[in-house]
Amino acid sequence: MIFFLGMPLWWSGGVIVYLAMFLIGMVHLKKSKTYSMLPREPKEEVTEK
Amino acid sequence: MIDLGGFSMSTSTMTTMVIIFIIYSLVIVGLGAYVKLQSKKVSTDNLASFLTGGGGLSAFAIAMIAATNSMAGGTMVTAPGLTYAKGFSGGIIYYAGFLTAAFGLGAVGLKAAIMKQRIGAVSFLDLYRLRFRSKAVVSALAITCVVGLLFTTCGQLTAGAKMFAAITGSNQYYLGLVLVIVITVIYTSTGGVKSMAKVAAIQGVVMLIATFSIMGILLIDNAKLYGSLGAAVEYMGTTYPEMLRADSVFTFMNTLGTVLFCGIGLGAMPFAVSVSMTYDNHKVLKRGIFISCIIFTICQGLMCATGPWAHNINPDLVTRDLTTFYVATNLLPSGVAGIIFCGVFAAIQSSLAGYCMSAAAFFAKDFFIDCVKPDMPEKKQKTFSSVTILVFAAIATLLALKPTDLTQFMINFSLGALASAWYWPVLCGLYWKKATWKGTFWSCIGGFFTYMLFYILSSVIPATKEWWIANTNNTHAFVFAWLISLILMVVVSLATQKDKVPLGYFQVFFCDDYDEKYAKNFRLSNKDQ
């Protein structure tokens, strides 16, 4: 059995994949756009040139 | 000393644990009463406030409800027990549910919250009432929810009561049953979601303390016993090699099905999507998902890995589900053991609270009040919801009076059926514009019953079980039911495009511009299907 970081490779690898997914998910969540959650999106004001 | 099969516990430890449990129970019941008194002082003491907390819950409250709803007895009791018997592989497979909150709230949270504001929805199924204009869809979702959650509640109750009877050494199964359900029902039916949020915060903290204590002491004791953690793993590999094998529990197809079920199937469960009714700010939602995922990752991840380490210290436990209690009572001080005892019950109670609230929202409000008796006065509606929680809990308790050894099978059976029934109706209902009420109805009913059928064939009848294992590589029943539900949704919807809802309702659900009269008039009349 191949060991990695003191545990079987399949286990350590699985945990690393899970943690990577977790980090990617949380960074994506943090960077994603924040919406107003209002019933209607506020209309942007049109400024005349 | 009290003999618990392979380990024992002193009477003084048991007394300390029971005293701490009594204090914990008084605190959470007191919180429920406090929330009830507070809500009576304000004018918004109505059904909407009861079911949604008024929409203004904080990120921490949302996170705690979402995380503790998902972490039932499985996290604190069954997962350590499974890994104690079978090794690390079972734990890593069940751990796939670590992003459930992100998937559930992330997929439905934003749209559900905006729709809630547009139409003034009180429960999640209000959105489907507007989307499909169909009593059949709302009733199918509500009834499958209540039936599924009833058996899940029964399974959780049985597990909690069995734990109580074993740990107190009293064989007081019925006392355990009453304590678990009565405490939960008191704080849920008095204060609704607001008291659930406050209690969930305490329960989450108790569970975190329990998790860190258990994992911490196991690693320290393994290192002490074998000289180092590396030596402990080496001993495990030599003496009990199945503990380190990847294929000691499931076949590949069974693993795939379990990961699908835990990873995404549970994200669309009624008690998970109900959380989307409790906030009105996207920043709060994102922070809630963030905290919830961290708490779930810590508790579920660490508890799933405790079994093999406990096995390395004592391989003689007769009842593997007592692994957590062995660690609590034999390796930790009695005060910490008391907190762990509360942590296990907190996990069970918090899930039961979520199930009870879902029953109140979906059966009482969506099915009975809106579909059967729409003229019920508003004051009576809240009372009826509280009574529904009591009746729901009473039926689950009656079912649990005769305990079965197949507790976990019952939990798996009901949750699997519910996930199969709800997954595609929830996602396609929210996002697929071509979904029709007939497609959603048959997807829900088809998913529910095909899961029941495949589960019985694959796990209950011995003759068909053998055939199933030989011919499907023991594929998890959820995979087939989930696929059949999807096929029914797509095929029936495409075949019934003439049954689409009127354009005004469609625009409220999918467009930026819509007519207010459709948004505020989504209740169903007698002529709707």
Concise summary:
The complex is a heterodimer of chains A (49) and B (529). With 49 residues, chain A is mainly alpha-helical. Chain A has one helix at 9-31, and strands at 3-4, 7-8.
What does this structure look like?
The complex is a heterodimer of chains A (49) and B (529). Chain A has 49 residues and is mainly alpha-helical. Chain A has one helix spanning 9-31, and strands at residues 3-4, 7-8. In chain A, a hairpin with a 2-residue loop joins strand 1 (3-4) and strand 2 (7-8). The longest helix of chain A is centred in the middle third of the chain and has 23 residues, at 9-31. In chain B, helix 8 (135-167) packs parallel to helix 19 and helix 14 (306-313) packs across helix 15. The longest helix of chain B has 54 residues, at 173-226. The N and C termini of chain B lie far apart (64 Å). At the A-B interface, strand 2 and helix 1 of A face helix 5, helix 6, helix 10 and helix 13 of B.
